[in-house]
Write a structure and sequence with these properties.
Low-confidence stretches: none
CATH superfamily of the largest domain: NAD(P)-binding Rossmann-like Domain
CATH class of the largest domain: Alpha Beta
Distance between the termini: 21 Å
Number of strands: 15
CATH topology of the largest domain: Rossmann fold
Length: about 375
Amino acid sequence: MIVGCPKEIKNHEYRVGLTPESAGELVAHGHSVLIETNAGSGIGAMDEDYVAAGATIIDTAEEIFAKADMIVKVKEPQAIERAMLREGQILYTYLHLAPDPEQTKDLVASGATCIAYETVTGAGGGLPLLKPMSQVAGRMSIQAGATALEKSHGGRGVLLGGVPGVVPAKVAVIGGGVVGFNAAQMAVGLGADVTILDRSPDVLERLSMHFESSAKTRFSNLANLAECVAEADLVIGAVLVPGAAAPKLVTRAMLSTMKPGAVMVDVAIDQGGCFETSKATTHADPIYTVDGIVHYCVANMPGGVARTSTYALNNVTLPHALRIADLGWKEALARDPHLANGLNVWNHQVTYEAVARDLGYDYTAAAAALAA
């Protein structure tokens, strides 16, 4: 199979779909790998590193899309990239379709077979291709929030950990999954006063046992959520409904109860955000203010630590990429129902139920695609 990896073109996105080591693995399996020139420069991987691994350097993304059987990326294809997809071509990347009707429309029109990292499941029921980026984003959310709290960025001028004689900042983490757990770990490590909200008793028990007295847990009902948001200096939105749009848990009305200069970091922004006032921002212009509350809603947070993120991502995406290349997408998905859960679009049809429901498409089960 010919596997192509174009340079990411989303604003301040420095990650790359394939590291030189991953390209070398594909070559060792007998596949041809095409890398757009300078695709890996954001992680310190030069063209000569890819050539040494057996890949071929291509000057333009257009040529890669024209030649490759499978496109491997990090972020969702931008409009100019979607226009280059063709019938039957495999796209393997993060998609986050539910809050993105324009992307979904273009992918359906393209006829490409689109496999989304974020909906591939694992044997334990998790989302293993999403997990490493959730770990990165959770940890970065505290760094970003701490910076946004500085007065020069419009924040309250509060230090997360405080100092002797001055109380630490209050941090509310909404959601106790991978993002929330990692955010809480970082915030606790900095000495903040941390409360984690979740609706799962099992998650709350696990978090309580892990953090013991270093972080509090609360059941996430409307009253508890409103109280924690009102008291917080920093709110982390860490809610995930796999493949679907995130629920709007923090309303605009709640902002009026918050401290002026408090900060909200919406890590769920890839799925539309879990704050009513959220809108996607970029690393170039990451924050904005609504009703005196600072919002940080960067849609590709892990891109800011591109080298760490790329290698963490490749660790989990490469094994599936190898199976798809070795077996073809249909056989690879037929053998692995967890990988089959990653199929979001096929043959002009939406094959992920939550996306079809949220965006009003007829739903075609992945099993029907595999049986066709």
